[in-house]
Amino acid sequence: MKPEWLDTKEYPFKSHYLQLEAGKMHYIDEGEGTPIVMIHGTPAWSFLYRNLIKILRKKYRCIALDLLGFGLSDKPDDFSYKPRAHAANFEQLMDHLDLKNITMLVHDFGAPIGFAYAIKHSANVKRIVMLNSWTWSLSKHQTFGKTSKYLVGPLGKFLHSKLNVSAKTLVNELFEEEEKVPELIKEHYVQGLGSPNQRVKKLACARELVGVTKWYEELWKQRKQIQDIPTLILWGERDKLIKIEALQRWKKFFHECYVIHFEDSGHFLVEDNAEEVANYVSNFIKEEEKKQELLHQT
Question: For the AB hydrolase-1 domain, which residue ranges apply (predicted)?
Answer without folding.
Answer: 35-273
